[in-house]
Design a protein that fits this description.
heterodimer, A: 311 residues, alpha/beta, 2 domains, B: 71% helix
Chain lengths: 311, 279
């Protein structure tokens, strides 16, 4: 079963009191997220990432299209009972301590009163706020509030966790800790849906991503699928290539770059790789490895946005 | 459990608000003041002392001094307590609607109806706690120190809380539509003023014009909105008749009944709007 399944999910807003304007926040978004995976939703500001999550959690209502979460149509109480959510800009009542905040949100999730204190203690330890348990949240830094937000989202042991910019304002050590928590949750079977601008983090932990632009999905796939440049290969050689071999190879219309014992080849067709290997072997050059060149998710994202802007 | 979780949280939020903490301090000062000033004559238990002056329970025929004091205290304090109350709770709905808060609340397995009702009930209960503190305090002071256990005075709290809950329907609608605590306060106070004017429509507003349509509009407005002023006036009649009034009006449940329907209508409007909004 898919954790999230949407079909043509559309959201149009009307803004302005007198001069009404239509804003197409989402346009026919069809996505599916596998259970037990970490899914990243990327996109520039205003692409519709937060709106998408809000529709799934009935914080906003779709204009058209359908969606189901954990098998339930959106809007059902049973769905929310099994989801955790950390919004992008979350506010907690400043007069409550960290423990009281988690107890309060535990109550809203319908947890039994007897389990709340132990649950709060466990979660505060998990997110590294054990020593701040009895401090009022108005004294918390942004990073600490972010950690508390993550604990709040986990209070009901969700099967599906929605996180909107979870590491925003968190220091590098904290980010690593949050990443580790998310990976552990994934290993325990929790599905995680992540909205983030930090593409390096998405790249590190997400299995699949979708890229939104102006409310439309422009790419979906695994990180490997999106970032692997299919026809660029790096060939590691046992020695530097002699000039004769370079000449032999360059006659074959490949785009080649030689650097010490590395050869980067941009091909027109995958079969050309065999031709290069044959030439190298014929000239007695040992091959230590062949890898497909990858680009970072950030580079891929920027390249894609440029392409989309040109269209 | 979820509903009560939000309800408990709202009471806590109400009590911790600065305005109500100020109210609590002022109320405490009044209670100390009265506890020092009210007493019973040592020689004659039938005589109460109020700031040094001695009064028999029935100094004049038909005038019960303690009851008279309690009526005056009730009439003069209720308006101020409600004033503090509006300042204290007008921000509850707009605060709930703030970005980052409403997202969190709506993502929980709590329906929008439960959420709004828990907030409204919590606000009324928070105010009730503050009212009971002052009124029960005064009641205890008169009971323990002067031997006057006036149950009517204590029970009048129920009517004031009910009136406040009806007034909060205006605050809830204003808060949902404007998302501003300032506007909610402004609208609530405007309504209190309008309610007072509508109460006096026959002796004041009808004099402006004889046009029956104008009269009908004022009557209609009076009956479809919570009769806040009438409810507060009636709440003091639970204590007793004001001896200074030549023809004291009798206590009637009618303003409470009319206000129940108009407040229900307003809460219904608030729920309808809240359940359809995108946040």
């Amino acid at each position: 079963m898919e954790a999230i399944q949407t079909a043509d999910l559309t959201k149009h807003y009307r803004t302005g009191l007198l001069n009404k304007k239509n804003i197409n926040a989402l346009e026919k978004v069809s996505l599916s997220v596998e259970q037990g995976s970490i899914f990243g939703l990327l996109g520039p500001n205003g692409a519709g990432k937060t709106t998408f999550v809000k529709l799934l959690l009935s914080i906003a209502f779709p204009t058209s299209g359908t969606a189901s979460v954990l098998g339930y149509p959106i809007g059902q109480r049973a769905l929310k009972e099994q989801c955790g959510y950390l919004p992008e800009s979350h506010k907690y009542p400043g007069f409550l301590t960290a423990t009281d905040t988690l107890i309060f949100f535990g109550r809203l999730n319908g947890l039994p009163e007897t389990a709340l204190k132990d649950k709060a203690k466990y979660l505060l330890e998990l997110v590294g706020l054990k020593d701040w348990a009895d401090v009022k949240t108005k004294k918390f830094s942004k990073g600490m509030l972010q950690r508390l937000g993550l604990a709040q989202a986990l209070v009901n042991d969700p099967k599906l966790l929605f996180l909107d910019e979870p590491t925003d304002g968190v220091d590098p050590v904290g980010r690593k800790e949050i990443r580790d928590i998310l990976v552990n949750l994934k290993n325990a079977g929790t599905t995680i849906f992540l909205n983030s601008h930090l593409l390096s983090e998405i790249e590190m932990i997400c299995d699949n991503v979708a890229i939104l632009k102006k409310g439309c999905v422009v790419r979906t796939g695994s990180i490997a699928d999106l970032t692997t440049q299919k026809l660029i290969y790096n060939i590691q050689l046992s020695a530097q290539i002699p000039e004769d071999t370079k000449v032999n190879l360059s006659h074959k219309h490949f785009s080649l770059e030689f650097k010490d014992t590395n050869l980067a080849a941009t091909l027109n067709d995958k079969s050309e790789l065999n031709s290069i290997i044959d030439t190298l072997r014929a000239d007695g050059i040992g091959i230590e490895g062949v890898t497909q060149q990858k680009m970072s998710l950030e580079d891929y994202f920027i390249q894609l946005m440029k392409e989309e802007n040109r269209q | 459990m979820r509903f009560w979780g939000m309800f408990r949280f709202t009471i806590g939020e109400t009590i911790r608000r600065g305005v109500l903490i100020f109210y609590f301090c002022v109320a405490t000062c009044f209670l100390i003041f009265f506890s020092l000033g009210v007493g019973q004559s040592a020689e004659n238990p039938g005589v109460i002392t109020i700031f040094g002056s001695e009064f028999a329970h029935e100094s004049m025929p038909g005038l019960n001094v303690a009851e008279f004091m309690l009526i005056q205290l009730h009439s003069s304090s209720v308006f101020w307590i409600v004033l503090f109350g509006i300042f204290g709770v007008a921000g509850l709905i707009p605060n709930m609607l703030e970005k980052g808060t409403i997202d969190l609340f709506l993502s929980k397995p709590l329906t929008r109806t439960e959420l709004l009702l828990a907030r409204s009930l919590g606000a009324a209960t928070g105010i009730a706690v503050n009212l009971v503190y002052f009124f029960a305090g005064i009641w205890l002071i008169f009971g323990l120190k002067a031997g006057v256990w006036h149950w009517g005075f204590l029970s009048s709290v129920i009517y004031v809380v009910y009136a406040f809950a009806c007034l909060f329907s205006i605050v809830a609608v204003a808060g949902l539509f404007t998302r501003s605590a300032g506007f909610s306060i402004l609208i609530a106070f405007s309504f209190v003023l309008i309610s007072w004017l509508l109460e006096l429509r026959e002796s004041l507003l009808f004099l402006i014009s004889d046009n029956p349509v104008y009269h009908w509009i004022l009557d209609a407005f009076y009956y479809i909105t919570p009769q806040f002023n009438a409810m507060l006036s009636n709440s003091s009649r639970v204590i007793g008749s004001n001896p200074l009034s030549l023809s004291p009006p009798q206590f009637t449940f009618m303003p409470y009944i009319y206000s129940f329907f108009s407040a229900s209508l307003l809460y219904g409007l608030a729920l309808w709007y809240f359940s359809r909004r995108d946040y």
